[in-house]
Amino acid sequence: MEKGEYGISAVASIIISPVLRPSFYFRRMNEQHNPWQIKGEQPIYDNPWIKVTQYDVINPSGGKGIYGKVHFKNTAIGILPLDENLNTWLVGQYRFTLNQYTWEIPEGGGPLGTDPLVAAKRELLEETGLVAAQWDFLMNFHLSNSVCDEYGFIYLARQLQQHEAEPEETEQLVLKKIPFEEAYRMVENGLITDSLSVAAIYKVKLMLLDGRIPS
């Protein structure tokens, strides 16, 4: 996703700590030029969610080659709900792409150019029936930057109230409420492998350890 499509540069200026990203890092990044030369491109596939393009390129070593890119038309949205007793909710579903059943935090997508927090609130209600009074931004990241431009946002949802879930008709979901520490152990034991879920659970674990979330 291009930065201009979502205003990521403005977001990054707020959420990226100078301690984590010193000024020399930005100078070095700005000095970098694109070593790839695009000689041609061919659309391969297009649907309402993704677009696949093959590029004829000259790679950074000067050789000719091809590069396939998957463009995502939505941002990835993940939400980790956490109640006052440090319980969280996981969603179970069969993932078509993996041919296996997975446990994940509530997640979904939001159209490019829209507020990711709006999508997060919608997805949390749809999948769990939860409505949160407190929302904290956890992180933004690229999910698989070697083949696609999918960009993700993860939020921590607190001060929860239970309402009726509103799942989409294409979804067959199983919901379970468990202690957060159990979710953390599932990640440690390889029982949760979804990238949004792993990132969110590890981030919240660190926040609990250093006191940013009262335990």
Structure description:
The protein has helices at residues 3-6, 8-15, 23-31, 116-128, 180-188, 195-209, and strands at 37-46, 50-58, 64-72, 74-81, 87-95, 100-104, 107-111, 130-142, 151-162, 174-179. It has 2 domains: 3-72, no CATH class; 74-209, Nucleoside Triphosphate Pyrophosphohydrolase, CATH 3.90.79. Helix 5 crosses helix 6. The longest helix has 15 residues, at 195-209. It is of the alpha+beta class.
The strands making up the biggest β-sheet line up spatially as 7-4-9-8
Named CATH topology of the largest domain: Nucleoside Triphosphate Pyrophosphohydrolase
Q: How far is the first residue's CA from the last residue's CA?
A: 37 Å
Rg from alpha-carbon coordinates: 19 Å
Count of spatially separate domains: 2
CATH class of the largest domain: Alpha Beta
Any idea what the CATH architecture of the largest domain is?
Alpha-Beta Complex
Strand count, sense and barrel status of the largest sheet are: 4 strands, mixed
Question: Could you name the ranges where pLDDT drops below 50 across 5 or more consecutive residues?
Answer: 1-27
CATH superfamily of the largest domain: Nucleoside Triphosphate Pyrophosphohydrolase
User: What is the approximate shape?
Assistant: elongated
Element string (H = helix, E = strand): HHHEEEEEEEHEEEHH
Strand count:
10
Based on secondary structure, the structural category is alpha+beta
- What is the count of helical runs? 6
Helix fraction bin: 25-40%
How much strand content do the residues show? 35-45%
Report mean pLDDT, rounded to a whole number: 87
